[in-house]
Structures are given as C-alpha cells and as structure tokens.
Automatic annotation (TrEMBL):
<dbReference type="GO" id="GO:0000287">
    <property type="term" value="F:magnesium ion binding"/>
</dbReference>
<dbReference type="InterPro" id="IPR000836">
    <property type="entry name" value="PRTase_dom"/>
</dbReference>
<dbReference type="InterPro" id="IPR029099">
    <property type="entry name" value="Pribosyltran_N"/>
</dbReference>
<dbReference type="GO" id="GO:0005524">
    <property type="term" value="F:ATP binding"/>
</dbReference>
<dbReference type="Pfam" id="PF13793">
    <property type="entry name" value="Pribosyltran_N"/>
</dbReference>
<dbReference type="GO" id="GO:0005737">
    <property type="term" value="C:cytoplasm"/>
</dbReference>
<comment type="similarity">
    <text>Belongs to the ribose-phosphate pyrophosphokinase family.</text>
</comment>
<dbReference type="Pfam" id="PF14572">
    <property type="entry name" value="Pribosyl_synth"/>
</dbReference>
<feature type="region of interest" description="Disordered">
    <location>
        <begin position="121"/>
        <end position="144"/>
    </location>
</feature>
<dbReference type="GO" id="GO:0002189">
    <property type="term" value="C:ribose phosphate diphosphokinase complex"/>
</dbReference>
<dbReference type="InterPro" id="IPR029057">
    <property type="entry name" value="PRTase-like"/>
</dbReference>
<protein>
    <submittedName>
        <fullName>Ribose-phosphate pyrophosphokinase</fullName>
    </submittedName>
</protein>
<feature type="region of interest" description="Disordered">
    <location>
        <begin position="166"/>
        <end position="241"/>
    </location>
</feature>
<dbReference type="InterPro" id="IPR005946">
    <property type="entry name" value="Rib-P_diPkinase"/>
</dbReference>
<keyword id="KW-0545">Nucleotide biosynthesis</keyword>
<dbReference type="GO" id="GO:0004749">
    <property type="term" value="F:ribose phosphate diphosphokinase activity"/>
</dbReference>
<feature type="domain" description="Ribose-phosphate pyrophosphokinase N-terminal">
    <location>
        <begin position="6"/>
        <end position="100"/>
    </location>
</feature>
Length: 466
C-alpha cells in the first residue's frame, strides 16, 4: 500500500490504469472525464489532492489529440487543487516522433536540382537563409506590422523572389510580382493572399513527414516516397507544393518541442514514459524525464524462442540500429540491418528506392526490432525482403503497437509470422483481428516505476540495458 499518492487514469487506456493501481494496491483516483457537445474536454477531480503526489496515466495512441488535451487539463486541475507534485505517466509519448526539423535522407535541407543554387560546390548550411526575419522587414516594402513571424519570413522570401522575378518574367511562381502595379512591392491585400497560399503550400510540403520512416521500395513495387505519409494516416501532399531554396529551413512546426512545453506549462513536475522514439527528446524538458526501456521484456521474449541464438536480430532501418544492436549484443546474437537506398535518375523520380539487406539471414529466424509500428509499412516491407533473402521465419518485436488505419490487415497479409508488442496502448481490439499478434504486459513495470519515484528510490534497475 502506497500512501499520500493519487493515481488518476486518463481515458486513453482504462485497462492499463486499472492494472497499475491493482499492482500499487490503491484504488484509482476519482476523476470525471467528459466532453461538451462541441467536443471540448472537461476534467473534474472528484477527490482532494491537496498536498499529495498525483500520477496521471495517459498514453499516446487512439484519439491522440483528445488524450493529450485531457492530460494537460488534468495536470492543470491538480496543480490548481494544490497537489504537491504532478507526474505525467505516458507509456507511449505522443508527438515524440516530431521532435526535430525535417531533413531528407542525406541530412541536408530539401532542395531541387532545378534550383539556381544547386551547384556542385554549393555548401549546405543548417542556418536559416534568409535569416529569421524581423517583423518589420523590409520597411521600404510597406508591409504591415501585423504580418509577423512565420508570415513575415515567407514575405521576405517572396520579396526576394519578386526581385529576381522582375529580371525573369518567365518565372511563373511569383510572376504576379513583376507586373507594373507591384513594381514597388505588393499591396497588403496581395500580400495576404499570397501569404496564405504560400503558407498552405509550405504546410503541404512532404518534407514534414520525416517521422514516418516508410520508404518506397523497388522490391515490392509499392511505390511510396520516404517522406510521403501513407494515405491512411495523412493527406497526400499537393504536387505543386512550395519548394524552398537550398539552405532554407522550412517553417514546419516542431510539435515535439511544443508538447514538451505544454506539459511543463500545464504544471507537470515529472514525466515517466517508455522507449521514446528519440531518447534525446528528454533534453527538450527542464523537468525530470524517466524513459523506461521495453528492452528487458523483448529480450525475455526472444530467450523463449527455441534456438534463439541461431536467429538474427534485424533493424528495419538505420535509425533503429542502436536499439536493435543493444539487444543483439546483450543476447550474443548476430545482427543485420536493412538499408534504404535511393538513386533517383531525375529529381522527381521517387520510385527508385531499394531496400538492401546488410548481413546474412538465409536459413535463419529473423527478429525485427523497432520502437513502434504505426501503419506497419516498415515491418511488413522488411519481412518481405527478409523472406526473399532466405529467412525461415520473421518475428517483429515492437514496444508500441500503434497499428493505426489498415495496419492489422497489412500484417495479416504480410510475410510476418508473428508480431509482438507491449500494451503501452490498448491491444484488445487489435488482438481480436490479428492472429499473429502477441502482447506483453507493461503495467507492472509502470507500477514499480511509480512506486520507486514516489519513495525516492532509484528506478535505474527498470531501464538498465540488462
Ligand atoms: O512504418 P510505420 O509502421 O508507419 O512507422 C513505424 C516506423 O516509423 C518510425 O518512426 C519508427 O521508428 C518505425 O521505424
């Protein structure tokens, strides 16, 4: 029995809330979670939390935005009600795949061959060029002071383009600036129209999808661009989207940073989560973040596979190699990596990506390791390649089985033999539809983490690599 503690469960994962409270030997805190007819979230803490340590459990799957808002409001409500300390417990951390600015596969800002700056000796810069604009730039252009931040940045770009357009009337994109009435700069109404179309274009640009590492592959003929989201998840980008100059950072929201700020701003004093997509995301917070590892659970599962030491641990992409090698090394198992290589013959050719296997998997069981599966494109394509290369069986072991959209159907139809996930997000519905799915329980790990944090004990034992 843990004292002076209140554990509140959000609406994202009631079974996990219950499991954690059972394990801690305390009843779930009394909170009313509801919605107004318009869709606004309402949270009412129905018991006293004055002077208590409150743990609010909310995971990142399902209606992720609603759950996030509910969590923020609940944190704020507890702080207002004089809770001593509020810890947000996020088994799957929402938005942590969007923690940085988008770059393409080469790590350079997106660019096109047709761009005048695309010379062999052109040095890429990760600095914003033009510089982050000043609100009143350029004063001589008569732009409104109300056009600030993002808009003024675009406006500066527009103005730069307008200047070059004046010398190149054939440049259609900003051709409207070269007509006589705009010779001394666009009028406000034109500016705003252009701004909104530009802004829309920017936010339609495919580059923002870096978080999804799904890749096109010549192997299965399923042409799908690295940066293009699967249709089930995100809108297809417009073809005529805005193309930035080389070296110019696109104005894409860094949602991960915002979410970190929102949690802190709402009043969170501490975060407990598991297998962050990018562990460096912890550095976005100025409050303690305990990033638990699902690895011990996955390793235990692997050790139950007959002759597991003859199997090969495989990372489905370079980004997950560190995670997978840690498991392979810990279990003295061989390791292989799937490398995605793209050699477009022309800049618009997005069909030429190939998945290449680095390592030998013939006549072996393969165990794919990744932090999460969302659409499952990554693991199903990897499984297809591994079977083609002679793998006898392919398991996919993932901490977070988000499995949104038609992911389950994709898994059922794939070369995967088994998919093993934790219940960091609800899996009941997935289990009913996917005979290949197996679920590992994480409630006990989170309960133990909460108990240890509450008593000021070390929790490193829970996230040690072995
Ligand atoms: O291919 P889906 O399942 O949509 O996305 C999962 C991949 O997206 C990445 O962020 C994850 O690390 C994983 O490799």
């Amino acid at each position: 029995m843990v004292r002076n503690i209140v554990v509140l469960g959000g609406s994202s994962h009631p079974q996990l809330n219950q499991k954690i409270c059972d394990r801690l030997g305390i009843p779930e805190g009394n909170v009313l979670l509801s919605k107004f007819s318009v869709g606004e979230t309402r949270v009412e803490i129905k018991e006293s939390v004055r002077g208590k340590d409150v743990y609010i459990i909310q995971s990142g799957g399902g209606k992720v935005n609603d759950h996030l808002m509910e969590l923020l409001i609940a944190i704020s409500a507890c702080k207002t009600a004089s809770a001593r300390k509020v810890t947000a417990v996020l088994p799957l951390f929402p938005y942590s795949r969007q923690s940085d600015i988008p770059y393409n596969k080469t790590g350079a800002p997106l660019t096109k061959a047709s761009n005048p700056y695309n010379k062999p000796d052109f040095a890429y810069s990760f600095e914003s060029k033009p510089q982050t604009p000043h609100p009143d730039y350029p004063p001589s252009q008569g732009l409104s002071n109300g056009v600030e931040g993002l808009h003024s940045g675009l406006t500066k770009l527009q103005v730069d383009e307008a200047i070059s357009s004046a010398n190149s009337p054939q440049n259609g994109r900003f051709a409207h600036y070269s007509n006589a009435s705009h010779a001394k700069g666009p009028k406000r109404s034109d500016t705003m129209d252009s701004l909104s179309s530009l802004t829309n274009s920017v936010f339609d640009a495919p580059s923002r999808y870096r978080g999804s590492s799904t890749s096109s592959t010549a192997l299965n003929g399923n042409a799908h661009d690295e940066n293009t989201p699967p249709s089930s998840n995100l809108q297809t980008p417009k073809k005529d989207c805005f193309q930035p100059r080389p070296g110019y950072k696109q104005w894409v929201a860094q949602a991960g940073t915002l979410v970190a700020d929102l949690l802190t701003c709402a009043g969170a004093d501490h975060i407990i989560t598991m297998d962050l997509h990018d562990p460096q995301y912890q550095g976005f917070f100025d409050i303690p973040v305990d990033n638990l590892y699902g690895r011990p659970l996955l390793k235990k599962y692997i050790m139950g596979i007959p002759d597991y030491q003859q199997a090969v641990v495989v990372s489905p992409d370079a980004g997950g190699a560190k995670r997978a090698t840690a498991i392979a090394d810990g279990l003295s198992m061989p390791f292989a990596l799937i490398h995605k290589e793209r050699r477009p013959t022309k800049i618009t050719d997005r069909q030429n990506a190939t998945m290449m296997l680095v390592g030998d998997v013939s006549n072996r069981i393969c165990i794919l390791i990744d932090d999460l599966a969302d659409t499952s494109n990554t693991i199903t394509r990897a499984a297809k390649l591994l079977k083609k290369e002679g793998a006898t069986k392919v398991y996919a072991l993932l901490t977070h089985g988000v499995l949104s959209g038609d992911a389950i159907e994709r898994i059922n139809a794939s070369a995967l033999d088994k998919v093993v996930v934790t219940n960091s997000v609800p899996q009941e519905e997935h289990m009913k539809r996917c005979p290949k799915l197996e679920v590992l329980e994480i409630g006990e790990i989170f309960a133990e983490a909460i108990r240890r944090v509450h008593h000021g004990e070390s929790i490193s034992v829970l996230f040690q690599y072995d």
